[in-house]
Amino acid sequence: MRNHGKSGYSNDFTLNHVAADIENFMKSQNISKAVFVAHSMNSRAIMALALTKPELVEKIVIEDMIVTDDPDTPKRAKQIFDFFRIVDKYIKAIPAHLPESEAHKMILPLIKKFFPENVENFSSANMTLSVPIYKDESGKFSWEINMEALFEFEKNQERFNIDLSKNPTFLGEALFLTGKRSYVQLR
């Protein structure tokens, strides 16, 4: 997904761009139809592709994505972006001599502060939380996400809304998943 991991970074970051990236990748690999498993933000792109180009999508599995207008979404989004802004400052100040494991330990108190319910759930399951950072070739710590594009996304989140005005339909199989410890809960 653009702006994530080692994928290309671009300030053009809308649902349509990401869905087009998926379609272009499929064409470049001669994939005529696929089964998709998607998580979080990428789930919206897969749902949009399934609704606008159903001939490309056999089945979808959507994990941890709010698919309705949830009144808590703006509050949750603000919490996440406030967290990202503070962690962004921390990352820029992490000394280059520290190993990645120590850098993650430095950020753990911030995760605990912003998302105490998640930390408690992960701790009870003997799991660890981390943020998507890595040490680049120069030894500097960087995000595995294009934060500039993500902060721009925050200002204009409706760019990731799915247009349902023409009543699109996906007739393939769809499975929506949420974990016991997920912030997304089915009602």
Automatic annotation (TrEMBL):
Residues 1-72 form the AB hydrolase-1 domain. Gene3D superfamilies: alpha/beta hydrolase. The keyword Phosphoprotein does not apply. Pfam families: Abhydrolase_1. GO terms for cellular component: mitochondrion. Its EC number is 3.1.1.116. The keyword Hydrolase applies. InterPro entries: AB_hydrolase_1 (IPR000073), AB_hydrolase_fold (IPR029058). GO terms for molecular function: carboxylic ester hydrolase activity. Belongs to the AB hydrolase superfamily. This is sn-1-specific diacylglycerol lipase ABHD11. It comes from Caerostris darwini. The gene is AVEN_54949_1.
